[in-house]
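Self-study notes.
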Amino acid sequence: MQRLIFAFLLWMGTPGLSPAQTINFQPMSPEAAVAASAQQNKPVLFMAYQGTCGHCEKMINEVFPDTSVSNFYNANYICVKLDMLDQNEAKKYIPKYNISSFPTFIILNGKGEVLSQFVGEFKPSEFVKQGKLALDPEQQLPYLRKRFEAAPADSATTYQYLLALSRGRLSTQPIANQYFAANNNRLDFSTYNWKIVSMSVSDMTSPVFQYMVANKDSFAMASSLKKVERKFYLTAAYNMQVAVSNNDTTQYYRQRDLAAKLKLHTVDSLIFVNDLNLAEKHKQWPRYISTARNGAEKYVWTDANLLRRIADNLYEHSEESSTLQKAANCAVRSAELKPDYFSNLSAAKIYLKLGYTDLAKKYAQRAVDEGGKK
């Protein structure tokens, strides 16, 4: 043991060798770091993270200790980080910097201006690349914003500005609105314009989104029908999910009506699931039953877990035989897709409630058999 300790001390004192280094985060607030930045003429890297975030943990434990990363950031930035699980810190910094996910990296100058913002988990080389981009004056947000404001109808300057905003998941819809208006509410159906609207438009009520919908086939020729429909699906999903998360039923039904006008099966399936979740959340069982009866086979016939959930809710909240038969169909289909204990037991309970004893025994035995395998 003494020899091991001696070897360790010898290694610690050997020139050129040192314990694993990492980014040197300073024990100071972002405001103090900005003040230091003004003195040292060195920008600030502010990392907003959460202690429970797996991506944050990987950056801290695996990426920051990489020597190419630590050497670059320690040489070029004043680095600070704060855990947004601290509610006081979260209330102060999340709205200030429009932080929507973790980790978020914010580059600030000595005046406190945001020069760049980027989000997510990176490989070491990519993280260094982001840091180098942030040092380039022509890649910084203030410069790109001024260029856009000087020529809001220009596709190249608009695209570059949107690209920088997207890296930090910052708001892009206002830029799309300005670009569309500057082009007299008409856009050429070019690949460049498709890139602009697909990366920036998120508001289904906006004129530019409605223009995309009205000219779906033309935009599909510039990209592909699959990409256009995927964009419509993601936009509808985002808007409805925000309303559901905020428990805003008025806004939800407004967004739902807009989404329904897209006439896409994937979007209609999404509407069906959201309608079910909302009815279940508010215990509106007549609405839930009606929605489930009319849409389960059409929209979620390949989703074993959701079909079993529908079956169980219909079983719990209906005594009507035709509804219970629908419930049985859902449970049986769930058992076909995922032949486990729970789906077979669900079918058995429903058939027993319907009075179909033989079928109840059949699925109860299947439940026992599947349970026995576990």
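Second protein, same conventions, sequence then structure:
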Amino acid sequence: MRGPRAEETLRLMASGSGDGSRHPAPSAQEIIVLRDVKKSFGEQQVLKGIDLIARRGETTVVIGGSGAGKTTLLRLIVALERPTSGQIFIDGEEISQLPERELNRIRRKFGMVYQYAALLDSCTVLENVAFPLVEHTKLSKKEIRERVEQKLSILDLDPKVVCDKFPSELSGGMRKRVGLARALMLEPPILVYDEPTSGLDPLTSRLVDDLIEEMRQRFGVTSLVISHDIASCFRIAHQAILLIEGRVEACGTPDELMDGPSDVAREFIKNSGVDTSRLGRV
């Protein structure tokens, strides 16, 4: 049995590619839309016609093994690469042919949260979190500090304690929250998490899941998660997309992937070793 998201994506896939005239414009709730997106590097075709819809305010998790094309897909969505063909809509705007100056504007719609927070070791917490404001605004130092302190407080970090510390002086959980504070400084509508639980023990991974859901609810953001963590996918995803060899093998809720028609999807989940029957949503 397929849910509405799976049916919608299948309808999109069935409608074929082209110049866009055959498709309606994305709805207000469709914040990320890819239509028949292909990407090649020389003779190697990495993405082979991707159709994808991510809805505003929800969490979409893209799963797949190594070499599936997840990183390339992510770089296309956040406008760090251009597709070889196809259309990419971000917040209602088609971006595949935009000039570089306009792409910088599009990139500000994304807050990036990296695997290990990717904080600058030589900079204090204040300097790390302030970086997007220093780069993209003309706010005074006082205004920047006030905004940094406000965001840290919202994320349950005491500015008086952490602002002058360096990343090496923080716990893993604190570094994650500092990374989130930096990602949220420009108030983007979309937070992108690149392998957020990779290399973490199960308990810490579940705490990261909680944090992803907390950010979605507290700030009303759309979450796009690139992951290989099946347990995390079942806990936080409104929509799961399985990428296999540059193609969308299956999409829908995690339960729809597990119980759906794709033998490949069922086998992928089974091979993860995760007992999905014991997993509850965040």
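Instructor comment on the second fold: The CA atoms of residues 129 and 182 lie 4 Å apart.
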